[in-house]
Amino acid sequence: MKKIITTPNAPAPIGPYNQATLSGNTLFTSGQIAIDPKTGELFKGSISEETKLVMTNLKAVVEAAGMTMEHIVKTSIFISDMENFGAINAVYGEYFDEATAPARETVEVANLPKYVNVEISCIAVK
């Protein structure tokens, strides 16, 4: 059985999906982008600031499921320009201990929702 996870501390879905689903002890999050959850507005700023808001939103969803960032076992990062990888990776690294960081892939894509620069999702296990 699955449980729907929602929090006002992350952007509301903009389509027919939820912020996350919990199945047993495993959490599957939807991709998070740089939308301010308080205003619903798309963030405009540097790639580092955009990534920080994405990670803050992701963390809020994970915490709404009663987990921490340490429970994340896998992330998927989608970026619009591989030239931004270094800046994105630097901010991403602030949220994990390198020795226990999750598995991940980083993929450059042609476009992302609302034409953002970065989208990140994760799988977490408690």
UniProtKB/TrEMBL annotation:
Q: Which CDD domains match?
A: YjgF_YER057c_UK114_family (cd00448)
Report the Pfam families cross-referenced here: Ribonuc_L-PSP
Judging by the UniProt lineage, the source's domain of life is Bacteria
Query: Which InterPro entries does the protein's record reference?
Result: RidA, RutC-like_sf, YjgF/YER057c/UK114
UniProt-listed Gene3D superfamilies: RutC-like (3.30.1330.40)
* Gene Ontology molecular function, alphabetical: deaminase activity
Gene Ontology CC: one annotated term: cytosol
Q: Which family does it belong to?
A: Belongs to the RutC family.
For this entry, the protein name equals RidA family protein
Question: What species is given as this protein's source?
Answer: Dokdonia sinensis
Identify the taxonomic lineage of the organism of origin: Bacteria, Pseudomonadati, Bacteroidota, Flavobacteriia, Flavobacteriales
